[in-house]
Design a protein that fits this description.
- With 113 residues, the chain is an alpha/beta fold.
- The protein has helices at 10-18, 34-46, 66-76, 104-109, and strands spanning 4-5, 23-29, 55-61, 84-89, 92-98.
- Strands 1-3-2-4-5 form a five-stranded mixed β-sheet, with helices on both faces.
- The radius of gyration is 13 Å and the shape is globular.
- A hairpin with a 2-residue loop joins strand 4 and strand 5.
Amino acid sequence: MNWIDLKNETQLDEIQRESEQKTVLIFKHSTSCSISATAIHRLERSWKPEEMQHVKAYYLDLLSHRNLSRRIADFYGVTHESPQLLLIEKGACVYYASHLGISYPEIRKNILQ
Protein backbone atom coordinates (compact mmCIF):
# COMPACT_ATOMS: atom_id res chain seq x y z
CA MET A 1 0.00 0.00 0.00
CA ASN A 2 1.30 3.45 -0.85
CA TRP A 3 0.45 5.68 2.09
CA ILE A 4 0.67 9.47 1.92
CA ASP A 5 1.61 10.98 5.27
CA LEU A 6 -1.08 13.36 6.51
CA LYS A 7 0.76 15.94 8.59
CA ASN A 8 -0.90 19.34 8.25
CA GLU A 9 -4.24 21.05 7.82
CA THR A 10 -3.44 22.37 4.34
CA GLN A 11 -3.62 18.77 3.15
CA LEU A 12 -7.30 18.72 4.12
CA ASP A 13 -8.00 21.22 1.34
CA GLU A 14 -6.11 18.95 -1.05
CA ILE A 15 -8.15 15.95 0.14
CA GLN A 16 -11.36 17.87 -0.49
CA ARG A 17 -10.28 18.65 -4.07
CA GLU A 18 -9.02 15.12 -4.73
CA SER A 19 -12.24 13.59 -3.44
CA GLU A 20 -14.14 15.21 -6.31
CA GLN A 21 -12.30 12.91 -8.74
CA LYS A 22 -11.45 9.82 -6.69
CA THR A 23 -12.05 8.22 -3.33
CA VAL A 24 -9.76 9.36 -0.53
CA LEU A 25 -9.10 7.04 2.40
CA ILE A 26 -7.83 8.44 5.70
CA PHE A 27 -6.42 5.99 8.24
CA LYS A 28 -5.94 7.45 11.72
CA HIS A 29 -3.38 5.26 13.48
CA SER A 30 -2.17 5.21 17.08
CA THR A 31 1.37 3.87 16.89
CA SER A 32 1.25 2.78 20.55
CA CYS A 33 -1.97 0.73 20.29
CA SER A 34 -1.96 -2.98 19.51
CA ILE A 35 -5.52 -2.86 18.12
CA SER A 36 -4.49 -0.09 15.76
CA ALA A 37 -1.45 -2.12 14.67
CA THR A 38 -3.67 -5.15 14.03
CA ALA A 39 -6.17 -3.09 12.02
CA ILE A 40 -3.56 -1.51 9.76
CA HIS A 41 -1.74 -4.80 9.17
CA ARG A 42 -5.00 -6.56 8.26
CA LEU A 43 -5.82 -3.76 5.83
CA GLU A 44 -2.38 -3.77 4.24
CA ARG A 45 -2.40 -7.58 3.83
CA SER A 46 -5.83 -7.50 2.15
CA TRP A 47 -5.27 -4.42 -0.04
CA LYS A 48 -5.40 -5.19 -3.77
CA PRO A 49 -3.84 -2.34 -5.78
CA GLU A 50 -5.55 -3.46 -8.98
CA GLU A 51 -8.96 -3.02 -7.29
CA MET A 52 -8.05 0.26 -5.60
CA GLN A 53 -6.42 2.26 -8.39
CA HIS A 54 -9.01 5.00 -7.91
CA VAL A 55 -8.34 5.32 -4.15
CA LYS A 56 -5.76 7.65 -2.62
CA ALA A 57 -4.72 6.53 0.88
CA TYR A 58 -3.59 8.92 3.61
CA TYR A 59 -2.00 7.85 6.90
CA LEU A 60 -2.26 10.00 10.04
CA ASP A 61 -0.02 9.29 13.04
CA LEU A 62 -2.34 10.22 15.90
CA LEU A 63 0.37 10.57 18.50
CA SER A 64 2.20 13.15 16.40
CA HIS A 65 -0.87 14.97 15.06
CA ARG A 66 -3.68 14.87 17.65
CA ASN A 67 -5.01 18.31 16.74
CA LEU A 68 -5.24 17.36 13.07
CA SER A 69 -7.12 14.20 14.02
CA ARG A 70 -9.66 16.25 15.98
CA ARG A 71 -9.97 18.70 13.09
CA ILE A 72 -10.76 15.80 10.72
CA ALA A 73 -13.40 14.44 13.12
CA ASP A 74 -15.03 17.87 13.43
CA PHE A 75 -14.84 18.65 9.73
CA TYR A 76 -16.42 15.37 8.61
CA GLY A 77 -18.85 15.08 11.54
CA VAL A 78 -17.57 11.78 12.93
CA THR A 79 -16.65 10.90 16.49
CA HIS A 80 -12.89 10.66 16.95
CA GLU A 81 -11.74 7.08 17.48
CA SER A 82 -8.48 5.21 17.17
CA PRO A 83 -7.82 3.47 14.97
CA GLN A 84 -10.26 4.94 12.50
CA LEU A 85 -10.76 4.83 8.76
CA LEU A 86 -12.73 7.38 6.75
CA LEU A 87 -13.71 7.29 3.07
CA ILE A 88 -14.12 10.73 1.51
CA GLU A 89 -16.00 11.17 -1.77
CA LYS A 90 -17.23 14.40 -3.33
CA GLY A 91 -16.09 16.29 -0.22
CA ALA A 92 -18.06 14.21 2.30
CA CYS A 93 -17.34 11.26 4.55
CA VAL A 94 -19.39 8.45 3.01
CA TYR A 95 -18.17 5.70 5.34
CA TYR A 96 -16.14 5.31 8.48
CA ALA A 97 -15.12 2.43 10.71
CA SER A 98 -13.01 1.98 13.78
CA HIS A 99 -11.05 -0.62 15.68
CA LEU A 100 -11.42 -4.15 14.28
CA GLY A 101 -14.47 -3.05 12.29
CA ILE A 102 -11.99 -1.80 9.68
CA SER A 103 -12.07 -4.37 6.90
CA TYR A 104 -11.12 -4.44 3.25
CA PRO A 105 -14.42 -6.03 2.08
CA GLU A 106 -16.41 -3.28 3.83
CA ILE A 107 -14.23 -0.60 2.29
CA ARG A 108 -14.78 -2.03 -1.19
CA LYS A 109 -18.52 -2.28 -0.60
CA ASN A 110 -18.74 1.38 0.46
CA ILE A 111 -16.74 2.96 -2.33
CA LEU A 112 -18.70 4.67 -5.08
CA GLN A 113 -17.51 3.45 -8.47
